[in-house]
Design brief:
By secondary structure, the protein is α+β, with helices and mostly antiparallel strands. The protein has one domain. It is built from two helices and four strands, in the order E-E-E-E-H-H. It has a four-stranded antiparallel beta sheet, with no helix packed on it. The longest helix is centred in the middle third of the chain and has 20 residues. The chain is elongated and about 55 Å long. Bound molecules: zinc ion. Zinc ion binds next to loops.
Length: 76
């Protein structure tokens, strides 16, 4: 199971919790309030490595165009 980082909206405290993948909330150890997942460097790296690089490469299509103005994906 991955370890996620959460931030309590009430206490504004960060804590780590071992959670099943996909769990978006964990209870704050102090007040018990459901806390949302914090964006940690680790999880950002994992998600960008696993699910982000491929869609971007696919959407880029044409390597000769720079950025959003490229219409190649529509015309090709
Ligand atoms: Zn709390």
């Amino acid at each position: 199971m991955p370890i996620y980082e959460y931030v309590c909206p009430e206490c504004n405290v960060k804590f780590d919790r071992l959670q099943p993948a996909g769990a978006s909330q964990a209870e704050c150890p102090d007040c018990g309030l459901p806390s949302k997942k914090a964006l940690s460097l680790f999880s950002a790296f994992v998600s960008s490595d696993g699910g982000f690089s491929e869609p971007v490469a696919g959407m880029g299509g044409c390597g000769g165009c720079a950025g959003g103005a490229c219409a190649c994906s529509a015309t090709h």
